[in-house]
Design brief:
Layout: E1 2-3, E2 17-18, H1 27-45, H2 48-58, E3 59-61, E4 67-69, H3 71-86, H4 92-121, H5 132-143, H6 149-157, H7 164-186, H8 190-194, H9 198-219, H10 228-235, H11 246-265, H12 269-282, H13 286-302, H14 322-343, H15 356-363, H16 365-383, E5 387-390, E6 393-396, H17 398-415, E7 429-441, H18 452-463, E8 477-482, E9 487-494, H19 498-501, H20 505-522, E10 527-533, E11 537-540, H21 558-569, E12 575-582, E13 588-592, E14 599-603, H22 609-624, E15 627-633, H23 638-651, E16 655-657, H24 663-683
Parallel strand pairs: 9-10, 9-12, 12-15, 15-16
Antiparallel strand pairs: 1-2, 3-4, 5-6, 7-8, 10-11, 13-14
């Protein structure tokens, strides 16, 4: 039985269980796979914060094979969605469409007037419904209609139509515009705003007044009267979405009004003025208009970040209606807010507040799933104990450090041939602690590691059964143990700027971690020291190794590195060696200060004889101290080859010319062979 991950996050924080069927994966397994995918970045940057940020930007391949989109890809998709939205239609087309429909109404009315005048001129008085003076007056009224949209609409509102068809079309246009304007302002209450029934309008005015009073009371810090619950009990039928609290209602209304204003702001100044005047003509109720203006001002004050002041340049061909334009502006506003949110996300946890339904609506279901998984990135690693947050930043835990080292070691061992694995057995048996499973008769001077079973058996065989069992020295049999062969190693890693510039740094750091893991887990009695060197050298602690990065300086001070290594190995038992990983010649060394109080760094590129001599002098000191130097060169230039040849002749160590891909193989094999040689020599 395993916990059901889908049950997590519920308010009760309980777990649901189901029978194991072999297909489920525990959260710890997922965290391990996730951590493994981050390992190289964690090693390269030495900072979980940076590694998580890069993964956040670039995405990753999930363990289930699904591509998790990074923020860069999501932002590209978001920009494409915005371009598609802007290309959907022409906002100015709504203005032109209204003007064209008004002209059709006027044309229909003119045609009817012309028909009636033609009847009068023909002397047909049977169906005349309008006198000739009235016909002339109405034709003159049409001729005097203003050219602007709002003035033309107001003129037709006051005009007495002759044509029933023209009147019907005008009333339908007015009703449609009233609905569209109401929807564009406040879609939530558009039906209430557009309802021409006097009783319904009065109730709408009362609702707006109550809502405005609540907003103003909240702004003053007063208790709400009415309460939101009382407000919804009285006016809830006017709000189809049934908001659960005042904040939800206000956020929805503010988003709609901001979108409507953005749509208006996207028009030319002349078109905007005409549509505003048209709205005044459609909603002539002064008290209703005042309540709407009051609500707009209160919403701006209560929610200043709702997106007021936006405007867009629509580039499509098809005309957008007023409600369609406001809805398009609302979608664009959501895209703007989403882009701002994604650009401001500097850590996975910041994505936890994203509206996944909105993301799915605009960018697709796969984008929503990706953001959900990105948001859980750090949380899962924290729950697995691999990273921890301290002072607002993520750091590797001890378990995380061990996991990286184990992974680096596992990668390198997988590359080695099977014949090179094994447990490098000792050439002889000795006085260690790990029993070998073999025994032998006790000899004077042996540690008294008695094998009780065999000792008692020997006594019973000699004296026969019965108690008490009496032991004699010749009955003693001791357990043989593995011979203890200790080696002491210092790993010198080049941290100069050339290492990352030549893509050598990650391989070197992996080897350092793998070697530390190998020694601490399989050869715990061995000593491993770590030294990083660039312009100067410094001793590194194993626990700091995952966060070590290169130095932003030029200079390869092998002399100082060898000096520190020699001092670290001075009193260490067993065979002693230095493993040096570098990609450059010695270009720096220490020289005494003129005051005699300390040392300063001398740097020169290309290398000068003084630096070479100082470095080789330290090689000689290591040789005299029986310290072997094995050098792994990642960039075997002629100058580096020449220097390393001199060093190996003086020291007797070995030189390896390798690549970042093969470095780990060389180092691990050489280390294991060094152990075997040490044991063979001890056995001899």
């Amino acid at each position: 039985m395993i916990p059901d991950p889908e049950a997590r996050g519920r308010p009760s924080r309980r777990w649901a269980y189901r029978r194991w069927d072999g297909s489920q994966r525990s959260p710890l397994e997922e965290a391990d796979e996730l951590f493994a995918s981050l390992a190289d970045e964690l090693l390269y940057h030495g900072d979980p914060q940076t590694a998580l940020r890069r993964r956040l930007l670039e995405g990753f391949e999930g363990a289930d094979g699904e591509r998790v989109l990074g923020l860069r890809e999501l932002l590209e998709r978001l920009r494409a969605a915005r371009e598609a939205e802007l290309a959907r239609g022409d906002l100015g087309g709504a203005y032109r469409e209204i003007a064209e429909q008004l002209e059709e109404v006027v044309a229909e009315e003119r045609a009817e007037l012309e028909r009636l005048r033609a009847q009068a001129d023909a002397g047909d008085e049977r169906q005349r419904s309008v006198s000739l003076p009235a016909l002339t007056e109405r034709q003159l009224a049409l001729d005097l209609l203003p050219d602007d949209l709002a003035g033309r609409f107001r003129g037709l509102q006051q005009y007495e139509f002759t044509s029933a068809e023209a009147q019907r079309r005008f009333e339908e246009l007015a009703e449609r515009l009233r609905q569209e304007l109401a929807q564009s302002w406040f879609q939530e209450i558009s039906q209430a705003l557009a309802n021409p029934d006097p009783a319904a309008l009065q109730r709408t005015r009362e609702m707006l007044d109550a809502l405005n009073r609540m907003l103003e009371q909240r702004a003053r810090g007063e208790e709400l009267d009415p309460s939101f619950e009382a407000f919804m009990e009285r006016f809830g039928d006017l709000f189809p979405s049934q908001p659960t609290n005042l904040d939800e209602l206000l956020a929805d209304l503010a988003a709609q009004l901001a979108a409507a204003q953005a749509a208006l702001a996207s028009l030319s100044p002349e078109q905007r003025a005409q549509l505003e005047a048209l709205a005044e003509a459609l909603f002539e109720d002064l008290d209703l208009a005042w309540q709407l203006d009051r609500l707009a001002a209160n919403l701006r004050e209560a929610l200043p970040d709702a997106g007021w002041g936006r405007s867009y340049r629509f580039r499509g061909q098809d005309p957008l209606g007023l409600a369609e334009a406001a809805e398009a502006a609302r979608r664009l506003g959501e895209l703007d807010q989403l882009e701002q949110f994604l650009r401001g996300a500097t850590a996975p946890g910041a994505l936890a507040e994203v509206d996944l339904e909105q993301v799915a609506r605009h960018l697709g279901e796969d984008a929503a799933r990706s953001l959900d998984r990105l948001a859980a990135l750090a949380r899962r690693l924290e729950e697995a104990g691999l990273i921890a947050q301290r002072e607002g930043r993520y750091e590797l835990t001890a378990a995380g450090v061990r996991r990286i080292g184990q992974r680096a070691l596992g990668e390198l061992f997988q590359r080695l041939e099977a014949s090179r694995l094994g447990s490098h057995p000792a050439a002889r048996l000795g006085q260690g602690h790990d029993r070998e499973g073999q025994t032998r008769p006790y000899a004077y001077g042996d540690p008294l590691n008695l094998d009780i079973e065999r000792t008692l058996r020997n006594a019973l065989r000699r004296r026969g059964p019965g108690t008490p069992v009496r032991l004699a020295p010749e009955d003693f049999e001791v357990a043989e143990t593995e011979a203890l062969e200790r080696t002491s190693t210092v790993l010198l890693v080049d941290l100069s700027l050339s290492m990352p510039m030549r893509d050598n740094f990650l391989a070197a750091k992996k080897v350092a971690l793998a070697l530390h893991t190998l020694i601490s887990t399989r050869f715990p009695r061995d000593f491993l020291g770590l030294v990083g060197f660039s312009e100067v050298a410094r001793e590194l602690r194993p626990e700091d190794l995952p966060t070590v990065s290169w130095d932003f300086v030029y200079g390869t001070n092998m002399q100082h590195g060898l000096l520190l290594a020699r001092r670290m190995l001075a009193h260490r038992p067993g065979s002693r060696q230095v493993i040096m990983i570098t990609d450059g010649e010695p270009t720096a060394h220490l020289v005494p200060e003129a005051s005699g109080d300390g040392y300063e760094v001398f740097f020169n590129y290309p290398p000068v004889p003084e630096t070479v001599r100082a470095t080789l002098a330290e090689v000689v000191r290591c040789t005299r101290a029986s310290i072997r130097i094995n050098t792994f060169m990642l960039d075997a230039s002629r100058g580096l080859r020449g220097f390393v040849d001199q060093m190996t002749r003086l020291n007797g160590g070995r030189a390896f010319y390798t690549t970042p891909e093969d470095l780990g193989d060389y180092v691990l094999v050489d280390f294991l062979e060094h152990h075997r040689r040490a044991r063979r020599l001890r056995g001899a």
